[in-house]
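Please check this one:

***
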Amino acid sequence: MPENGVIYWGFVMRLEEDGVTTKTGLMDEAVLFDLPWHNFLIPALRLLKVRRGLLDPLFAFDARELLALVQRACLALGMHQMEVELYSFRHGGASFDALSKARALIEVKRRLKHVSDLSTRRYEKAGRVSLELQKMPSSIRAYGASMESLLASVFLRPVTCPQPPKIL
């Protein structure tokens, strides 16, 4: 949904004017929402942008608070054995992109800012992804799949979501 000449929405991290680099020494790094299944995010991002100032952070929490929230959710869903960290989302997204052929491996490498092809090849390993998914209770995998259709609604307005299945 292009607007004002912008083709894709995304996040820019470590703005040069702030003088703080990524762990690899980069600034002005962007992650674009450039695939068709990202489109549900656009109305939510637009709403957040309107509610906050143009240069203000979109979210009112920091990485430490987000990690605590993710870890509480994993515990409640019986996924604590997966040891999910925020970095897991980087790996999960890259694995999904590579295994679903949503992006060529060279695009995954560029998106991750890898220098070595070897660093990127691990995202082609379907067996590793399968092993991680097996750590998750099957009822929770099914619940997650069913919740996917509600994501856009949850972002835009309060919605009552079905409760996750009880973990024994």
In short: The first helix runs from residue 41 to 51. The beta strands are 9-13, 29-33.
